[in-house]
Amino acid sequence: DETEFRNFIVWLEDQKIRHYKIEDRGNLRNIHSDEWPKSFEKYMKDVNCPFKIQERQETVDWLLGLAVRLEYGDNADKYKDSTPDGAKNTENAAKNAEPLINLDVNNPDFKAGVMALANLLQIQRHDDYLVMLKERLTQDAIAKASQSKEGLPVALEKHILGFDTGDAVINEAAQILRLLHIEELRELQTKINEAIVAVQAIIADPKTDHRLGKVGR
């Protein structure tokens, strides 16, 4: 939603990024103005965002990364020694490590989750949702899922995370997640480009018929 998007940008600037002085945020806060896109484009340049105004998902991701970095920088002492709540309680940690032990297959939420997964994985729906689960546990399905994709090695030390958790392992995990997210965005962009090319090939291939005195199919 356009209004929510603009409010989100204003909130990030007001609450987290704070690149402008308060008195200089008027144009960005005027979300109902026809000139807002120009103000937003200028804002992106001012904060050195590398993406174009049309690349909204990438822009949002980048601005959130900037906000997190600034938030961490302002409260480094608070966050560097933070410990996940589950790790503070040994009993809870043990339960979290084995979430399937107390799984209730008759729980309505579990059934709804299975149906949602079936839609995502394009599994044929069945009256018995347990049958759908078994369909993905056949030998062929497991063998297919075990196939790994060839990839290029990545030097994580060359990629800047933007913040420091104080734990080298967590930092590396965060870098990997960020790179995986970027890879998904690139794959999506590739599919979009392929779709555009396919459509253009169809509509930009007119055939001339002199007998009809027109161009086209």
TrEMBL record:
The gene is Rtraf. Belongs to the RTRAF family. Pfam families: RLL. PANTHER family: CLE. InterPro entries: RTRAF (IPR019265). This is RNA transcription, translation and transport factor protein.
